[in-house]
Design goal:
Blueprint: H1 6-30, H2 35-61, H3 64-69, E1 71-79, E2 82-85, H4 86-93, E3 96-112, E4 115-128, E5 131-146, E6 149-159
Length: about 160
C-alpha cells in the first residue's frame, strides 16, 4: 500500500474542504433570498450527521454489517497509521467496540446536492483488540448519496490535544 507523506494527506483534506467551501459560497450567492436554500443545506447536514452517528452507533452495538454497508467500496480512511481501504477498516473494527461517544463542534460544508463534509471532535471510550481506551480525536468525513443510499467515501481521524 502506498503511503502518502503527512503533508500530502493534509493538502488533500484541505483541498477537499476548500472545494466544498467554494461551492457552498457559490450556491449561497446564487440562491440568495431563496428561503428553501437554507432549508436544503440544513436538511443535507442533518442527514449526513445522522448517518455518521448511525455508523458510530453500529460500532457500539457491533453491527459490522451496517457499518460496512454505509461505507463505499472505494472509501479511504486515514489515521495515524496512514490510509486504509474499506476491507482493512472493516477487518480492524471486528475487534473494536465503542462503549460511549460524544460528538461536539460539528461543522458542515456542502459539496454538492448529494454530498457533504462534516468535521467534528469525537470523545470516545471503548475496547480495541482486548484493551480499554479513551480518546479524543478530530474527525472529518465525506458522505455522498449513491444510487439513493448514503455512503461514507472518506474519513480521517487526527488525535486531539
Amino acid at each position: 500500500m502506498r503511503v502518502l507523506h503527512s503533508s500530502k494527506r493534509v493538502a488533500i483534506v484541505l483541498a477537499l474542504a476548500a472545494l466544498g467551501y467554494a461551492q457552498a459560497q457559490g450556491t449561497a450567492r446564487s440562491a440568495a433570498g431563496a428561503p428553501e436554500a437554507g432549508f436544503q443545506r440544513d436538511s443535507l447536514q442533518e442527514q449526513i450527521v445522522a448517518k455518521e452517528r448511525a455508523g458510530l452507533d453500529a460500532l457500539k452495538t457491533g453491527d459490522l454489517t451496517y457499518f460496512a454497508a454505509s461505507t463505499a467500496d472505494n472509501a479511504i480512511f486515514v489515521d495515524e497509521r496512514g490510509p486504509a481501504t474499506k476491507s482493512e477498516v472493516v477487518e480492524h473494527t471486528a475487534a473494536f467496540r465503542l462503549h460511549d461517544y460524544t460528538m461536539t463542534d460539528v461543522r458542515f460544508v456542502p459539496v454538492s446536492d448529494d454530498s457533504g463534509l462534516i468535521v467534528y471532535t469525537l470523545a470516545e471510550s471503548g475496547a480495541s483488540h482486548g484493551r480499554e481506551f479513551t480518546a479524543k480525536v478530530h474527525v472529518s468525513a465525506l458522505w455522498q448519496k449513491r444510487e439513493g443510499k448514503w455512503q461514507c467515501v472518506f474519513s480521517q481521524e487526527t488525535a486531539a490535544k
